[in-house]
Design brief:
The complex is a heterodimer of chains A (274) and B (313). Chain A is α/β, with parallel strands linked by helices and 274 residues long. Chain A contains eleven helices and seven strands. Chain A has a single domain, classed as Rossmann fold (3-Layer(aba) Sandwich). Chain A is globular. Chain B folds into two domains: 157 residues, Thiamin diphosphate (ThDP)-binding fold, Pyr/PP domains (Rossmann fold, 3-Layer(aba) Sandwich), CATH 3.40.50.970; 129 residues, Rossmann fold (3-Layer(aba) Sandwich), CATH 3.40.50.920. In chain B, helix 10 crosses helix 11. The longest helix of chain B has 15 residues. Chain B starts with 6 loop residues before the first helix and ends with a helix. The chains are: A alpha/beta (274), B alpha/beta (313). Bound molecules: thiamine diphosphate and magnesium ion.
Chain lengths: 274, 313
């Protein structure tokens, strides 16, 4: 990726971060921390990588994306709105009665959302199912998915891991949002993941560890590498910061999972993101 | 005494009190200890209160193992993940193996509010009711919860506590006498029986005011233990009034309505009207909005009561 393009993506990430803080802020409560840690991955996927058409959300053989940590829905909605799947003004309906944008991703309500999620651990299996389906159809689609590090404590994640390796689903590219935090504390103190890269390797995956999960260039390069995998699914470990980009959110640590946000805080956050 | 106290605070305080006196009690959470109020127990009981991470299935069977060692574990999550997610573990490790484990599920039904459809358990009572030996308890207020917890510990077996975790309306006063297996007749009446559980008790009491103004005498009964249901209380009231309304924050299929209908259809069939979620999933919104949308308000209960009375033969 050339420098210019890289700069454009950086600006895009900043903009998506603003939209996300704004929509959650206007509501006054939401999963801010976990939304802010996946922005760059979403931006690289949706603005650079994925074969999709916002005018034809159900295009056959499109690439798909499953947000397994479904509580980060508001970040994805900001991207989808900006891509033109629906009007940007819809972001202000987030989590209000009769909204098409509920806190957790819902494929029946939101244009552009490929899979419903919210019960942790299920999304990655759904993504593995899509990857298997794509192999049968031979449509050459890539299936992308983001799971949480806390979510990785669910046994189902490792059932999916085994299955995807067994069926050689090299068209499956999963990211772990490795922000080291969950709700009740740090992942390390709640239920440590140990050497996560080695775990995925031992499960038969191609593993790429990214030092800065908020760096679009590193994410992009990792995806290019993943697409070269001949037989293994790929796990890209994104070292991220929960609440990244907004200092007071970041400073809250595990307290930023599902947090209230005041009007003053919303304005302060937007200022920081100018 | 418990006005404006969060139910989860009462839960944690009472469990803490019980843990001081009974070393067998263990509290296990799956990354929702903050949400359920049980996080602070870890400071006081560092060995006996802990988290197993976001792994509810493992949590349930771990608890069964500890119970096999003589402990009395409480396990906790949101209702959706404390029941349907771990249904087989509850059936086999807990119920079939007859292990003394207590399950805390918070945010039942529409009370999951902004967490939306994925987190709204409309089926948890139905799912667990069909597993033999599982006691299902849903407190109507903080007094009832505080009085119930020692009895739940005393009872040897699987108990599911379906917990609204925010401040609940005050229904009972301090001299309330609790029996885990007996329903509470909150108010006697002769024209219609209104059976209610959990957050719907408050609505039922408001419906009573509406009906009273129209000269209808309602009998209001709180069924806090949905399984095993207090058959005698259900039959006695239905024999007296001849018509029934059942109110629950749950799918009208499989929950309290079904439990009441099962009793009455065998021994004393009368008209029964349902107030609850009419077999659909939930969605994001505050409780008041959803109560209106799903026809679960006091007005809806009063209207259903009149319908049921009109159906009497
Ligand atoms: C099966 C299941 N159990 C529990 C929850 C409640 N919950 C929602 S998010 C969350 C913590 C997630 O932590 P992590 O995966 O690290 O997400 P992130 O830090 O990226 O927000 C929990 C416990 C859930 N949604 N699903
Ligand atoms: Mg995390």
């Amino acid at each position: 990726m050339c420098n210019n393009e890289f700069q454009t993506l950086k600006e895009k990430s900043r903009y998506i971060r603003r939209l996300t803080v704004d929509s959650i802020g206007k509501l006054g409560v939401g999963h801010l921390g976990g939304c802010l840690s996946v922005i760059e991955a979403l931006v690289v996927l949706y603005y650079k990588e994925m074969n999709i058409d916002p005018k034809n959300p159900n295009m056959e053989s499109r690439d798909r994306f499953v947000l397994s940590k479904g509580h980060a829905g508001p970040a994805l909605y900001s991207v989808l709105a900006d891509k033109g799947y629906f009007d940007i003004s819809e972001l202000d309906t987030l989590n209000r009665p009769e909204t098409k944008l509920p806190s957790h991703c819902d494929m029946l309500r939101t244009k552009g959302v490929d899979m419903t999620a919210g019960s942790l651990g299920q999304g990655i299996s759904c993504a593995a199912g899509m990857a298997k389906a794509s192999k049968i159809k031979r449509d050459n689609a890539n299936i992308y998915c983001i799971i949480g590090d806390g979510e990785s404590q669910e046994g189902q994640v490792w059932e999916a891991a085994m299955m995807a390796a067994h069926f050689k689903l090299n068209n499956l590219i999963v990211f772990t949002d490795y922000n080291k935090l969950q709700i009740d504390g740090t992942v390390e103190e709640i239920l440590g993941l140990g050497e996560l890269d080695k775990k995925w390797e031992a499960f038969g995956w191609n593993v790429i560890n990214i030092a800065d999960g908020h760096d679009e260039a590193q994410i992009y390069d990792a995806i290019q590498q993943a697409k070269k995998s001949q037989s293994k699914p790929t796990m890209i470990l994104l070292n991220t910061i929960k609440g990244n980009g907004v200092s007071f959110v970041e400073a809250m640590g595990a307290g930023n999972h599902n947090m209230p946000i005041s009007e003053e805080q919303r304005i302060q956050a937007l200022k920081e993101l100018e | 005494m418990y006005e404006n106290v969060e139910m989860r605070q009462v839960l944690a305080d009472t469990i803490s009190f019980l843990m001081e006196r009974d070393e067998r009690i263990i509290v296990i959470d799956a990354d929702l200890a903050k949400a359920n109020g049980t996080l602070a127990l870890r400071n006081k009981f560092p060995e006996r209160a802990f988290d197993v991470g976001i792994a509810e299935q493992n949590m349930a069977s771990v608890a069964a193992g500890m119970a096999a060692y003589g402990f009395i574990p409480f396990i906790g999550s949101f209702t959706a993940f404390a029941t349907r997610r771990i249904c087989d573990q509850i059936a086999i490790s807990l119920a079939y193996a007859k292990r003394n484990v207590k399950i805390i599920g918070s945010d039942p039904g529409i009370s999951a509010e902004l967490n939306g459809g994925t987190h709204m358990s409309m089926e948890d009572i139905g799912v667990l009711r069909s597993i033999p030996g599982v006691v299902i308890f849903e407190p109507a207020d903080a007094v009832q919860l505080a009085k119930a917890l020692p009895k739940i510990v005393e009872y040897d077996g699987v108990v599911y506590i379906r917990l609204y975790r925010k401040p609940a309306a005050v229904i009972f006063n301090d001299d309330y006498e609790f029996d885990l297996f007996k329903a509470d007749v909150i108010k006697e009446g002769s024209n219609i029986s209104i059976f209610a559980t959990g957050i719907m008790v408050e609505e039922a009491l408001q419906a009573d005011e509406i009906l009273k103004a129209e000269g209808i005498e309602a009998e209001i009964i709180n069924i806090h233990t949905i399984k095993p249901i207090d058959k005698d209380a259900v039959l006695k009231s239905a024999r007296k009034t001849g018509a029934v309304v059942v109110c629950e924050n749950h799918n009208i299929i499989g929950g309290l309505k079904s439990a009441v209908a099962e009793v009455l259809s065998e021994e004393y069939p009368v008209p029964i009207k349902s107030i609850g979620v009419k077999d659909h999933f939930g969605e994001v919104a505050k409780m008041d909005y959803l109560k209106n949308k799903y026809h679960m308000t006091a007005e809806d209960i009063a209207a259903a009561a009149k319908d049921a009375i009109n159906m009497k033969r």
